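User: Show me a protein chain along with its predicted structure.
Assistant: Here is one chain, sequence first, then structure tokens.
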Amino acid sequence: MLSRDDVDRARRRLAGRVWRTPVVRCEELDALAGARLWLKAENLQRGGSFKVRGALLAVEELAAAGSRGVIAQSTGNHAIAVALAAAEHKLPTVVVLPSDAPAAKVRRVRKAGAEAVLVGTTLAERVAVVEELRGRYGYDVVDPYQNPHVVAGQGTAVAELIRQVTTAAGRLDAVVVPIGGGSAVAGACLAATGEDLAVVGAEPENVPAFTAALHAGGPVTVPSRHTLADGLRPDRIGDLPFSLAHRAVTGVVTVPEAAIAEAMRAALLHARLLVEPAAATALAAALDGAVDGATDVGVLLSGGNVEPGLIASLLTDR
């Protein structure tokens, strides 16, 4: 089982390889939230998201073991991160994305040198194609949820946030992170071990995979409905993230689509931060008072790979 020590080791291994993204403050957002928000701007990270943290570690392990190439399935950001990490080791890469994946994310995957295969809209469809490709090519799979190096690497974003806030102002009462397949919330729970810090997850109301898993006592597949937060579309929480987070997480907020859109607008207009809908889901939960009585709340703005057309529509269709 992973622990806080694994996150600390991951942080040391990533030193100088990922960017120490800033923590942004915004008085207007504080007023809306009724608390001081500390925004961890991973939208400014390499590859446009925090996902590069875990991908660098996982691919490095495979390259050291003599991997012939790597395969990954993703809704977008993990695919970009794996493509970038594999390029460092000159490993051939194939990534499987939903057929309706945002064009901006598909372009970034291909620009990094990976082959992009677009198929279906559900997690099960992507996993099936990954297995087929693994049999065909003999490549290694970099799973976005089940790989322990990925989970530990993702936890370094929140570990870094905690250290930055502690240096600047004391301590956080809580941290809010988005939930898709679960690596972010699992990594956050590991990073928060021993910190007297509430970890709150935020997921789209239309894809409440973690909430359903909590009710069922384990991961279950939920109906795949459309959500603006394309990065949080996995319809089933990963087994490893669930095992790490289901007892450690303080709570989970399900966020309506309108609130995700409004949080994107608020981040851009008030904080001057361009974030994708997945990151805005966490911000929306924080703005809605995700943790009662919290004074200082960290928010993981997980990524910024967003379609230009979506930005334009959010700013004009109000």
